[in-house]
Specification:
The chain has about 280 residues and is an alpha+beta fold. The chain is built from six helices and 15 strands. Strands 12-11-10-9-13 form a five-stranded antiparallel beta sheet, covered by helices on one side. Helix 4 packs antiparallel against helix 6.
Length: about 280
């Protein structure tokens, strides 16, 4: 599958801004299942970007605008090819995989994805509520699938209820939110069960006849480390494995590692408009 993604962030400032320094994480990854064919970032007011890699292997572009401006537009255009086959639901959890999963070396290696963060922390009684319903399956793969289905079945996708600052333990009792909230909740539950799991930020291609949800802006889902296999994507918003419709931009511990655009400026308040268009070029 080949996609073209156009992503526009428009900032409007209440008062003129005389300086701004910004970082963007909008460049899709290239890995064993996904290939970035082309990428372009356009900044208005015009500014050159400088790339570097962060701690989690994501591409970060930095740019500085020294002159006075009342508007900032960041537009990125990407073409990505993806080939990813269904896998995790057909996997057999072997004794060898179990031994790897319970080894000290495995847990030390993925410690960053086992520790709670402010975004993923959940209260013990919230985690127990989930386990009472789905069971405490000792197979980490099946447990992850059960948690994904629980969130999909029990939570309602609704914008304007939570914000980018909402934490997992705050969103859980509301049983509503967006993909970011569902991903943080799933991460909190999995990590409490010593399952290495990370946050994925990217795009979702929905198409005309799909029941998938989450294409209006950037999308978020979970990747679980399967012993001896690697990272496998699970999308709790849609209760599906993350396959050819899911376009990966970056991974990290939670949203704070992957905010699409971060910056500082001298001036008043601002408003932000985000537009994402994902087009299928070739199936």
């Amino acid at each position: 599958m080949k996609y073209r993604i156009e992503h526009i962030n428009e900032f409007h400032y209440e008062t003129p801004v005389d300086q701004s320094m910004n970082h963007i994480r909008l460049k899709p990854r290239t890995d064993e299942c996904q290939r970035l064919l082309s990428y372009r970032s356009e900044i208005n007011p015009s500014s050159l970007t400088k790339e570097h890699g962060d701690l989690w292997g994501n591409t970060v572009e930095t740019f500085f605008i020294p002159e006075v401006h009342e508007h900032l537009e960041v537009k990125t255009t990407s073409v990505v090819s993806i080939q990813r086959s269904p896998f995790i639901r057909m996997m057999q959890y072997s004794p060898e995989m179990r031994n790897i999963y319970h080894s000290d070396l495995f847990r030390k290696h993925y410690l960053a994805y086992l520790n709670d963060t402010p975004y993923t922390y959940m209260f013990r009684d919230q985690i127990d509520e989930v386990v009472r319903e789905i069971g405490d399956n000792l197979n980490p793969v099946q447990f992850s699938l059960d948690v994904m289905r629980y969130i999909h079945d029990r939570f309602t996708y609704q914008g304007n209820v939570t914000t980018v600052n909402t934490k997992a333990h705050e969103a859980f009792p509301m049983k509503t939110g967006v993909c970011q909230d569902f991903t943080h909740i799933m991460l909190g539950i999995l990590r409490a069960h010593l399952i290495p799991a990370r946050y994925v930020s990217g795009y979702l291609y929905v198409g005309e006849d799909s029941a998938l949800i989450g294409d209006s802006a950037t999308h978020a889902w979970v990747e679980v480390m399967v012993p001896g296999i690697g990272w496998c994507g699970l999308d709790p918003t849609n209760n599906v494995e993350a396959l050819e419709n899911h376009i990966r931009v970056g991974t990290g511990r939670d949203y704070s590692d992957l905010s699409p655009l971060q910056g500082v400026y001298r001036g008043g308040k601002h408003s932000l408009t985000v537009k994402v268009k994902c087009t299928l070029l070739d199936s």
